[in-house]
Amino acid sequence: MSPMDRFLASVERRAYRTALLACGQHADALDIVQDSMLKLVQAYHDRPQSEWPALFHRILHNRITDWQRNAGKRWRWLPLRSSSGADDEDDAEAAPEIVDEHQAGPLQQLTLTEDTDAVMGAIEALPWRQQQALLLRVWEGGMSFHGGLLGVMFAMWWYGRKVGSGFWRLADFVAPLVPLGLGAGRIGNFIN
Known about the structure:
Elements (H helix, E strand, L loop, with lengths): L2 H21 L2 H19 L7 H26 L8 H9 L11 H19 L3 H12 L6 H18 L3 H8 L3 H14 L1
Helix pairs in contact: 1-2, 1-3, 1-6, 2-3, 7-8
């Protein structure tokens, strides 16, 4: 398997979820992802591998934007399709399932499906731009807590100066809460 094939396989599911959230249609999401992958391979296969993620996400974002513009034009003249139409069911049967090498048991799959549905429902409630920003940050390693830790340390220093209490006195007060914050950061990294 070539490096490009491995890269495309690694971003396939995330790209599909991103496109599906943006357009709401299974077939359209598959088309968007396929067009994005083809464009990356055709135009940027000779670029360094480190540039592929940024290029792919830019191409994907542009394809989603193009789809939304075209959908706006189509919807002026055509009735809206429901997101659970018969066409989607036919497309879902025709499209091959993406197979996960690490199959979970039925109970684990049910729990994972329920959790995923809850998360996807919350993400779908966000405006489109926020959906894109959230998915990019989470899927590309944006759930690290180091920036937050530095921000808290700066805020403690600033607050200590403002109220006349020293940094170390505030640090003694905050110290018992640090394990909770670190635990939340680890959960975020695990989710990522």
